[in-house]
Design a protein that fits this description.
This protein is an alpha/beta fold. The chain has 26 helices and 34 strands.
């Protein structure tokens, strides 16, 4: 039984004459969608699998399908004769273009058998054609390897074909089933003492051989080291470093990948006359010569066995000496190996004679964390979910390790400068906050933890992109955009459009028995991101912006506001309580007129003033008519009611507007602590949030405003009635209304759907406030207004809520800006969906 081994991810060429049984072989050993058939593609484009005139178009389709599958990382089998070098050349080129290994399974069966089988096919080809194909195949056999095919299996009889067994072998780079934990160590370059100190700091225990040399290190909790390459050259104890690294990899206590210095060492040991012993290589060779031929041979074999990169922990972690962009991860080619060793070079040299490297990490958008070294930097920093761990120990810097999955950096300073760098260590900040338009434009599907997949349409994204570019703060200053909020269902009570009982009934139906009713401040929704004094951040001291990302204040007033907020946070002891240097707050900023003065001046006040003037004039005319004996009492009552409605409309507007001077008169009413450094708080009970806010009010009662609230049992009639009375008194005194929320945020689940996820809050607006929304005389049209449809509004509220929390989760997880902004931008996109603005 012949065993045919093929890589788990490869382009498999079935090679054989017509009638050799390729299609049956493919159907037997591969999944239906893994095989791409030239005959099937010919039928697709022409309707006839025997139409040779459609061959060119058929192979265009076949090549396109193959390319798409390889791009997606899928094993692909090509069912075509492939007996001619030209046919194989284009397929091998496809594999090379996608950094995939091309392999061949050859069905070299007897010519007579192929001709006999061919006669029984539905669409046979001529015997002469089959003879020619067999001749072309046998002529090609010796040259298949030279063409670039890596694994070649040849079956020469029916028995071999029938008994063949396909075994899929894992790629050397595939360690996805290895979940660590790991300690990933940057470029050592012979700094043995620092390596021992670092391993000691990480908790490893050393193992010595009979002569007392350290040859291994093990961690009592099973952690393992990953060496990122460049163990050799420049430093003082290369042999000691190699002895330890080789011992650790042999015992399973470490993994290692090669660096460019190991690659050069292999060449020097193989062809010494063809390699210049520069950049510390001469010192390494001298140490190896002293260590002896046996050890040197072992080093050569070990270095030669190292794999260019590894993909670990279910694809969450990638390690490569010089880094690796997403398209190359888990692939195998000379191009991939070169990238792993040398990075993405431009082909040019700088003034120091060293290669100019393209900053690939700036454009990295992969989900896997990439840890690498190669280019020494003064300090470690995250750049789009990647981190360089070469902090120039041999140049007098530090030896760095990343504890994975903890994402904790551990460092040991160099004892001294062992080698002067050819060029200064890179000191310019890399663009970790670099964004591309492609990060947000086009149709996108965003995975959220709360609501699964949310689709963003291309045309809506384009409009939001224009708005954000023209009016919003820079993305670095946006951590969160709050969602829209749905009102309660239409009230069943005759004189109400909205009433608290509908909110309580909704949550009770959803199984939520405890809710909190919070005073709804008539201001403008504000997100406050404040940083501790002197804390370094890309946003300065922070930001205060609207729910669409626009700034509330000019720079001078913003600075004053943030200083006041930071001082209150400090006075309340929250920096220490949360062990953080920043807080993210959801709030209302008052007065409403602060943001909406133009709207008040140009729209609302003219309506109110005009209506009063009009009705006053009308009442004078009615009074004049009645003085002449006309029966106008009913008309007078109607106009007086309209006049009262207009007056109430004006009073509501004036109630939410007052003058401000700088920060004098400005009030901030936070109602939720969304997050602090490394921790999301949105899942805590709302009473906890309001307790934190009360400490800010106590610290600065002129700036901060409390949020009145009442807790309700949705299954207790007395509790509900007390809340209704509270709402009536609140709105009668001029309040806008209240927001009813589950005491704790809805449960987080990847299986959540819009039908299964509870609304995070429902607004219940007061009768007078609704005049602003529906007009001064809306109570006269309640019958019509009660027919409003909330379906789209509630769907929108849930999607925006899920996206907002996704943005917070990504922020506290330390994800790159493009990942955070993807969710934030999507909230703004949602706002372009056509909904009734009065809801």
């Amino acid at each position: 039984m012949p065993e045919i081994k093929i890589p788990e991810f490869a382009l498999v060429l079935l090679i054989g004459a017509s009638g050799s049984g390729k299609s049956v072989f493919a159907a037997t050993h591969f999944e239906p969608f893994e095989t791409v058939s030239s005959d099937f593609c010919r039928g697709l484009v022409s309707g006839d699998v025997t139409d040779q005139g459609a061959t060119a178009d058929a192979f265009d389709v076949l090549n396109t399908i193959i390319a798409k599958r390889l791009q997606r990382g899928l094993l692909t089998v090509v069912d075509a004769t492939n007996v001619q070098p030209g046919a194989r050349k284009s397929l091998i080129a496809l594999a090379k273009a996608h950094d995939v290994l091309p392999v061949a399974i050859v069905l070299d069966l007897p010519e007579k058998l192929c001709i006999a089988r061919n006669r029984n096919r539905t669409a046979p080809v001529g015997a002469e054609v089959v003879k020619r194909q067999v001749q072309q195949l046998r002529k090609s056999l010796r040259g298949l390897s030279a063409e670039g095919l890596r694994e070649i299996s040849i079956l020469t009889s029916e028995a071999e074909v029938a008994s063949a067994k396909i075994t899929r072998t894992r790629l050397y780079s595939n360690l996805k089933d290895d979940h660590g934990p790991f300690d990933v160590i940057g470029d050592v370059h012979g700094c043995f003492d620092e390596l021992l100190a670092l391993l000691t700091s990480l908790g490893y225990e050393f193992i010595k051989d009979e002569s007392g040399q350290i040859v291994d290190a093990a961690h009592p909790r099973g952690r393992r080291v990953i060496f990122l390459g460049d163990l050799v050259d420049r430093g003082p104890q290369v042999v000691s470093v190699l002895r330890l690294a080789m011992g650790m990899t042999a015992s399973g206590n470490a993994l290692a990948i090669p660096g460019n210095h190991e690659a050069k060492l292999i060449r020097a040991l193989t062809k010494p006359n063809q390699v210049k012993p520069t950049h510390g290589l001469a010192q390494t060779l001298a140490e190896l010569a002293e260590a002896g031929a046996e050890f040197t041979a072992a080093v050569k074999d070990w270095a030669h066995s190292l794999i260019s990169h590894y993909v670990l922990d279910s694809g969450r972690l990638v390690v490569a000496h010089a880094g690796l962009k997403q398209a190359y991860q888990g692939r195998a080619s000379a191009r991939v190996r070169a990238f792993c060793l040398y990075g993405d070079t431009t082909g040019e040299s700088d003034e120091y004679g060293l290669p100019v490297r393209y900053p690939w990490a700036n454009d990295y958008r992969g989900s896997a964390m990439v840890l690498y070294g190669h280019t020494p930097i003064p300090k470690t920093e995250w750049v789009n979910n990647t981190m360089c761990l070469d902090t120039g120990c041999v140049f007098g810097g530090k030896l760095s390790a990343m504890r994975y999955p903890e994402k904790e950096v551990v460092q040991i300073p160099a004892a001294r400068v062992y080698c002067d760098p050819i060029r200064p260590l890179e000191t310019t900040a890399r663009e970790s906050d670099f964004l591309n338009a492609s990060d947000v434009l086009g149709k996108r599907i965003i995975e959220t933890s709360w609501l699964g997949r949310i689709t963003i349409q291309a045309e809506q994204a384009a409009g939001a992109f224009e708005v954000m570019n023209r009016f919003a703060l820079p993305p670095q200053q946006l951590a969160y955009l709050p969602p829209t909020m749905s009102p309660v269902e239409t009230s069943k009570l005759e004189d109400y459009l909205e009433h608290p009982l509908e909110a309580f009934d909704y949550f009770n139906r959803q199984g939520v028995t405890e809710v909190i009713c919070e005073e709804k401040h008539m201001g403008s929704r504000a997100v406050v991101w404040v940083f501790r004094k002197d804390a370094a951040s890309a946003t300065g001291n922070g930001s205060i912006h609207t729910r669409t990302g626009r700034a509330f204040f000019d720079l001078e007033l913003l600075t004053q506001a943030l200083q006041r907020i930071e001082a209150a946070v400090a006075a309340a002891g929250l920096w220490e309580e949360f062990e953080t240097d920043w807080l993210l707050l959801d709030a209302e900023l008052l007065p409403w007129s602060l943001k909406s003065e133009d709207l008040l001046r140009d729209l609302y006040r003219p309506i109110a003033d005009g209506a009063r003037t009009m009705y006053d004039a009308a009442l004078q005319q009615v009074a004049s008519g009645m003085s002449r004996g006309l029966e106008l009492g009913e008309l007078q009552a109607h106009i007086e009611q309209r006049r009262a409605n207009a007056a109430a409309f004006g009073e509501v507007i004036d109630r939410y507007a007052w003058p401000t001077d700088g920060l004098v008169g400005v009030q901030l009413a936070p109602f939720q602590v969304l997050a602090s450094a490394g921790v999301a708080h949105y899942d805590k009970p709302h009473t906890w949030h309001l307790g934190i806010i009360d400490s800010l009010v106590a610290a600065d009662s002129q700036l901060f405003r409390p949020t009145r609230n009442i807790v309700v049992d949705t299954q207790n009639d007395q509790s509900k009635q007390e809340a209704v009375t509270w709402w009536e008194e609140l709105t009668a005194a001029g309040g806008e209304g209240m927001v009813v929320k589950p005491m704790v945020s809805p449960a987080k689940s990847a299986r959540n759907t819009e039908k299964g996820l509870v609304q995070p809050g429902l607004k219940v607006r007061g009768r007078d406030y609704l005049r602003i929304t529906y007009g001064a005389d809306y109570l006269d049209s309640l019958g019509m207004l009660k027919n409003r449809n909330l379906t789209l509004k509630r769907s929108l509220a849930l999607r925006e809520y899920a996206l907002g929390l996704e943005a917070i989760d990504r922020l506290v997880a330390g994800e790159p800006l493009w990942r955070r902004h993807e969710a934030i931008f999507a909230v703004l996109v949602m706002e372009s969906e056509p909904t009734d603005p009065r809801l």
